[in-house]
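User: Quick one: structure for sequence A, then sequence B.

Assistant: Sequence A:
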Amino acid sequence: MSSHVWYASYGSNLSRHRFERYLHGGTPVGGRRHYHGARDRTPPADDRPFRLPWRLRFGGASRTWGGGMAFVDVSARGRTLARMYRLTVGQFADVHAQENGGDAHAADIAALAPGTPVRAGGGNYPMLVCCGQVDDVPVVTFTSTVLPHRAAPTTAYLRTIAAGLAESHRLGSRAIVEYLRGAPTVRETYDAAALAAVVRAGVAAAMVPPPRHSSPS
């Protein structure tokens, strides 16, 4: 088994600052929840843009942001923009534990194969999904086994996603608005002008280009 995985994130963890709260601890800008961080706080060895072949949807209720959380619906083909971080298996387990409330153990990751999801824990994101390999390292994401009721994301959450899309995919505000409006709950809740204002604030806060390594905070 590989000692590393690519963690493919597609929600607020698109933002490097937000993702690093899972490694270094702290509270993300605009969030409500403090994270204790990972046991190994070494920065990711690499991060790259990525695309998941499933539909993005928002639902449930986030303890960090309020409002709906991002999920991928693995039963529906689509296009979800992601950012993958190269982590050790132990770091990935700690990230998943903080996100989901239950660990992804090495045995869970070893059991992963494309098309064979593995359940780990019982929180919002218990389904581990292998999305293939990049540079001979498995790409893994997580989502829900049963998608929650649809719910619109908050402006703080969308700002953070917009920042991450600007950082990782080098998208401008117009392209990000178009992408986010592909999710029905976003399109139904935010008119074009309101969403554009939220996205512009996120793009302005983005770290472009993102640092190769960020210091613990």
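Sequence B:
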Amino acid sequence: MLDAAVAVFSRRGYHGASVDEIAEGAGISKPMVYAYLGTKEELFEACLYREGARLMEALVAATVGEEITPEKRLRQGLRAFFGFVASHRDGWTVLYQQARGQERFAGVLSQMRVRMVEIVAGMFTESGGADEAVTAGYAVVGAAEALADWVVDHPEADPDVLATRLTNVIWLGVAPSR
């Protein structure tokens, strides 16, 4: 049901999507959609939470564990991020392109963004102080979000290449002065 909802919300946006179309795509009745997930707003929020959780899981899986340099951790995190966007274009579209302009979902998106910044800032703690790491976290997340929007429209884009390019650009700015 959530897969069908994400596909419809991605194509039509929150306001343009109908529960009828979502139910049809899921192969269930409209009353079943309401019974399981409630209103269209609750269904959209469920999509946001699921896609956000998938994205966070990919980031954490790529950046936690083995002892590696912060630069390599950043590259792995960006690969996971762009890989998620490339393989879940509808999910990214719902998360950031469709929900972004909807005031009622601003809190959900803000929470996800803060969590992403925390993950990224953790990658930089070996390179500088906490303030510098948070600043870098916001800069990386903003740059990655902008590139992710581009990836959605360019299926030929290689997530590994983008991750390497963005890491190289960012790393020049956070590397300790010599």
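The CA atoms of residues 26 and 34 lie 13 Å apart. DSSP finds nine helices and no strands in the chain.

User: Thanks, that's what I needed.
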